[in-house]
Write a sequence for this structure.
């Protein structure tokens, strides 16, 4: 069940386990995945899960209703928790690239599918470069400092995304990110 | 660390750093993030526009100001602003408190009244 003091990580595991037991493969992504890896750095108040197969809406409602969730206005809310749960339309993508991998994390009997820490950093850094969103930069740095990430892969992604007129924008975003990671400066 | 006065004065430096870091912004946002009086911000932005560093467009009745990407040292100046923002803790914190990426329509705001991730 969802306790009033449940953290985002607790809620993610509870919801992820309920979905998994119902045979629904859903992957935690977005800002909530950043909070999962770096809770002290970045706080998200909602959980975004992307379904690996579409058309499972009714099954999702059936899986989450026993936990106390109700569905309205495109999101699940719980009377004891401020964390909302949403299922944004897939496929899972970062920039122009679809994501076909994720980690499966276990906590005792509980299970959660979550995008990899490297992909969280790619996603947040892409948002920083695209929208000049410094909260996304902070999340990217926080996750890179808290988890094992593939900096080479992140670098290659930013160079692929930053083509043509966007080149300088993405290079600056990458330089800023790398400097803060190198200096371990949040 | 003493306040940076690289661009003429502490307030002016904050306004320049914030404006260039945000790249595409409007005077009230700059004033909020730089914690500078709006009239000072407008004057500084006017000066930067006259220098050709910024350009502006009217969107409705809002004046949006943007880094002039055709200015000869636009990329270098913005890189400098990003570097300076890192060593101005209050500016960095204010920048990080601004959500600028889009949010899905209907998505709730958090307990502090900000958009959630």
């Amino acid at each position: 069940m969802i306790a009033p003091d449940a953290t985002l990580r607790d809620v993610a595991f509870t919801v992820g386990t309920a979905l998994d037991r119902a045979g629904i493969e859903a992957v935690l992504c977005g800002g909530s995945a950043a909070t999962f890896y770096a809770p002290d750095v970045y706080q998200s108040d909602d959980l975004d899960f992307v379904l690996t197969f579409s058309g499972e809406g009714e099954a999702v409602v059936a899986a989450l209703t026993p936990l106390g969730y109700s569905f309205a206005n495109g999101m699940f809310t719980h009377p004891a928790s401020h964390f909302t749960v949403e299922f944004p339309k897939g496929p899972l993508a970062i920039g122009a690239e679809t994501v076909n991998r994720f980690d499966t994390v276990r906590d005792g009997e509980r299970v959660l599918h979550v995008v990899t820490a490297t992909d969280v950093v790619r996603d947040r850094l892409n948002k920083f470069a695209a929208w000049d969103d410094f909260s996304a930069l902070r999340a990217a740095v926080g996750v890179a400092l808290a988890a094992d990430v593939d900096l080479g892969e992140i670098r290659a992604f930013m160079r692929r995304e930053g083509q043509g007129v966007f080149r300088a924008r993405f290079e600056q975003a990458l330089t800023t990110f790398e400097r803060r990671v190198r200096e371990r400066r949040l | 660390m003493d306040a940076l006065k690289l661009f003429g004065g502490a307030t002016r430096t904050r306004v320049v750093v914030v404006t260039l870091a945000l790249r595409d912004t409007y005077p009230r946002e700059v004033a909020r993030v730089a914690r500078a009086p709006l009239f000072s911000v407008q004057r500084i932005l006017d000066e930067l526009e006259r220098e050709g560093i910024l350009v502006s467009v009217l969107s409705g009745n809002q004046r949006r100001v943007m880094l002039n990407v055709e200015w000869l040292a636009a990329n270098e100046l913005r890189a400098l602003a990003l570097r300076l923002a890192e060593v101005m803790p209050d500016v960095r914190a204010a920048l990080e408190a601004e959500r600028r990426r889009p949010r899905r329509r209907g998505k709730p705001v958090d307990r502090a009244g900000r958009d959630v991730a």
Notes: The radius of gyration of chain A is 17 Å.
